[in-house]
Amino acid sequence: MKKEDNILEKYSGRRPFTTPEGYFENLTANIMAVLPQEESGQESAVKVTMWMRIKPYVYIAAAFAGIFFCVRLALGTTSKDDNMQIAQTEEMTIYTDEYIDSFLETAMIDDYTIYYSLVDINN
Amino acid sequence: MAAKMAYDEKKILEMLREDSISKRRAFEAIVNNFSEQLYWQIRHMVLSHDDANDILQNTFIKAWLNIDSFMGYSKISTWLYRIAVNETLTFLNRQQRTISIDIESDETDIKNTLESDPYFDGDETEIMLQKAIAALPDKQRLVFNMKYFNEMTYEEISEALGTSVGALKASYHIAVKKIKSFFDNSD
């Protein structure tokens, strides 16, 4: 393998190619000469507007905003549901049968008063 | 003819958005700045001067026709390199389809092409080296030429080809290994 290493080392950076005399001196002029001329009065086929320049960034921003909105919506809905569940649980906890019984005892309300109140409400 | 302007990419990008005279002047500065390095890049791939010259002209014609759609997201050199690489690979693919797919025959073609080329001044070993390089896959050949002959750094190649430095290093080392193996087997 030593020989192959030496070969690559020996020829590294050496170009075995040449060009016709004066080729690079005239290259720019030769290339410019073959470029098609722009027709006068005709604007570029694709005019780059400010919108075209910022369009990709706007799209990316919109995509992120969409993702953010969806995530917020999903998280927001969940927390609202949780709150409602907590509130309902709290209501259920407050108005247990024991609580009502003890309340009625301490309030000294008899069955007739309760009956009267219910009839009165329904009417 | 107007004096050649110095290459200032920011100024050139501004001029490309102006009237057609400024645009053409800016493009001339681009051609002046990049034509030689692009030529060598193409030449190492296609070997023949005439083919390299044609591909170089096509590269700049294509760049000129699409200059309005160049948004400036990448450097001009990167954009030009990509056009040149595409043009070169298209040429090589077309050539491979029309000439031969036989490796032995390809090697003889390369030897004959180089020996009869008045613009090749390499010795027998360099002809062998060109044969070994020609046997590499396109991407490895491209990276090898840029690093070995054009002495570009991995960072410069990465910028030109839009490939990571790690991937380039891997491509280059595989290419070197294959070339060494080519010489080893030819003994």
Describe the global form of chain A.
elongated
Termini distance of chain B? 56 Å
Please tell me the CATH architecture of the largest domain in chain B by its name: Orthogonal Bundle
Helix content of chain B: over 70%
Oligomeric state as shown: heterodimer
* Alpha-beta content class of chain B: mainly alpha
- Provide the number of structural domains of chain B: 2
Residue share in β-strands of chain B: under 5%
For the report, how would you describe the main beta sheet of chain A?
A: none
What would your notes on this structure say?
- The complex is a heterodimer of chains A (123) and B (187).
- With 123 residues, chain A is an all-alpha fold.
- Helix content of chain A is 73%, strand content 0%.
- Chain A contains 5 helices and no strands.
- Chain A is elongated and about 125 Å long.
- About 4% of the residues of chain A have low confidence.
- The longest helix of chain B is centred in the first third of the chain and has 27 residues.
- Chain B starts with 8 loop residues before the first helix and ends with a helix.
Topology of helices and strands:
The complex is a heterodimer of chains A (123) and B (187).
Chain A: H1 2-11, H2 23-34, H3 50-94, H4 97-107, H5 111-122
Chain B: H1 9-16, H2 20-46, H3 49-65, H4 76-98, H5 103-116, H6 124-134, H7 138-148, H8 154-161, H9 165-186
Helix pairs in contact in B: 1-2, 2-3, 2-4, 3-4, 5-6, 6-9, 7-9
Primary descriptors:
heterodimer, A: 123 residues, mainly alpha, 5 helices, elongated, B: 187 residues, Rna Polymerase Sigma Factor, Chain: A, Arc Repressor Mutant, subunit A, 9 helices, 0% strand, globular
Summarize the structure.
The complex is a heterodimer of chains A (123) and B (187). Chain A contains five helices and no strands.
